[in-house]
Amino acid sequence: MLETPVVSNNERDFILKGILSIIKEVVTAQQFEIWFSCLRVSSVTSNRITFVTPNSFIREWLKSHYHDLFSSAVYKVLNSSREVHFSTEEEVFDKLSATSFPPEEFFAGKKPPEENYHVPLNKYYSFENFVVGPCNRLAHAAAFAVSETPGLAYNPLFIHGASGLGKTHLLHAINNVLSSKHKMKTLYVPCERFVNHYISTIRTNSWDSFRAFYRNIDALLIDDIQAFENSQESREEFFHTFNTLYNAKKQIVITSDCPPELIATLEDRLISRFKWGLLCSIDNTTRETRIAIAEKKASLWGINLSHEAASYLAENVTGSIRELEGAIARLSREEKITKNSITLDRMRKIVWELSGNKRYISIETVIKAVSERFNIRVSQLQSRCRTRSLALPRQIAMHLSRKLTKMSLMEIGGYLGGRDHSTVIHADEKITKMLKKDKNLSIILQKLESELQK
How far is 250 from 1, CA to CA, in rounded Å? Predict the structure, then answer.
């Protein structure tokens, strides 16, 4: 059963202002700007207050570091205790979308409040906090140029790349500069939210309000536009919104997990418009960039991470940057609870736990399995010999060792002929590419992995 809010929107704003003024006296100005200034209160009931954060990264950080401070501040402002709950904008919106409205409200023409479709700025996502490397240099430069000369540099700007590589970070960074430096009216919105808002508007028939919300702005930043794939009518509406903004020389920035021509069902007229400006990609991060990101994120969390520890983290948390952030959040909680600095041994254990207690295999076992499969001696795999008959098995051994063992790149290279980390990276990338094209090799590696993990 849902709890009924006991305060109005204006009262929520007043309560939030009082709570933040108390917190501001305790934390530094920089901490307040990054972590607290982006908050809002979504509801206050008789026994709970819910704070909304832009993303799960900030939500988890506030829960683990400042829950007691929030509880104390809430008590001082409300003169009674409340359960402090943290949620994200996405969670709040999903809950809103799942709400069933009574039919009579539709016929009465009542519309959902537009504020529910507006995502607040996340000051943590700034250009200063974005780590630039070969994989994202063009996208970063283009985003920065757009933030400095909106509507002139690249319009539209279309950034594509896999999930978790920094596209949303750049959108928020642009948004921050446009709204704070240029005092522009901006709107950042995930594409799925646009689609859901469109569906809600069909129910309420409040088209004037809907169109004013998306068109009476100076800049539109829309995230994950591939969500339009299964929504033809909302694509039609977006087409006209795009034209209105573009003709008025308003800045448009779009992100996607793939180039526009690869988005299924996307009409040619939209594809051509997305190419009017600049298309740029964000590629998978290199080892060096991941290490720099790990060090930067750790610094923002107040963790003194050694270069060796950052290297281990970057090499062994091989998923997206969000997963790397999650690992660092876990390290921060660990450091706070134990009051001890994070050692490399402790980090190994944490990474192992985050992997779902995955059973790691020794590199000796991997090398032996590869040597038996290709009928060559272990000593040959570990030699400096570079003949073609040994190159592929050695690269497979490096690929499997990186995937299945806890060894660092340097350690893997050392075991296989004293090679450096760049050789291991090259071997891993080469085998990964070959697996997409060579079915026989894919079957061989599947059998090897299956045998090793028994």
Answer: 45
Based on the fold, state whether residues 247 and 335 are members of the same structural domain.
Answer: no
Distant-in-sequence, close-in-space partners of 325: CB < 8 Å, separation ≥ 6: 57, 297
Is 277 annotated among the ligand-binding residues? no
**C-alpha 105, offset from chain centre:** 37
Whether 164 has a binding-site annotation, put simply, is yes
- Cα 267–273–278 angle (5° rounding)? 130
- Cα-based distances in Å from 113 to 4, 93, 110, 209, 234: 18, 12, 9, 10, 19
The strand pair at 40-44 and 48-53 is best described as antiparallel
Q: How many CA atoms lie within 13 Å of 122's alpha carbon, on the beta-carbon side? A: 24
With CA atoms as reference, report the closest residue to 365 among 315, 393, 400, 390. 400
406 is in an annotated binding site: no
pLDDT for residue 2: 46
Q: Which of 137, 161, 175 is nearest to 252 (CA)?
A: 175
Instruction: Report if residue 340 sits inside a domain.
Output: yes
CATH number of the domain that 338 lies in?
1.10.8.60
User: Do 291 and 273 share a structural domain?
Assistant: no
Token pair for 198: 């469109």
b/e burial code for range 379-396 (CB count within 10 A of at least 16 → b): ebbbeeeeeeebebbbbb
Q: Is 168 labelled as part of a ligand binding site?
A: yes
Q: How far apart are CA 189 and CA 222, in angstroms?
A: 5
Task: Give the range of the structural domain holding residue 396, as residue numbers without chain letter.
Answer: 363-452
Judge whether 294 lies within some domain: yes
- C-alpha 112/C-alpha 63 separation (Å) is 30
For residue range 356-386, list pLDDT tens digits in order. Answer: 545 567 888 999 999 988 888 888 888 888 7
331 and 375 in a single domain? The answer is: no
261 shares a domain with 308: no
Same domain, 129 and 193: yes
Task: Give CA–CA dist 99/273, Å, rounded.
Answer: 35
156 and 270 in a common domain = yes
Our count of domains for the chain comes to 4
pTM: 0.59
CATH number of the structural domain spanning residue 21: 3.30.300.180
Question: Which residues of the chain register pLDDT less than 70?
Answer: 1-9, 92-122, 318-319, 334-343, 353-360, 453-454
Note whether 146 and 269 are same-domain residues. yes
| Listed residues 235, 251, 282: the one ending a domain | 282
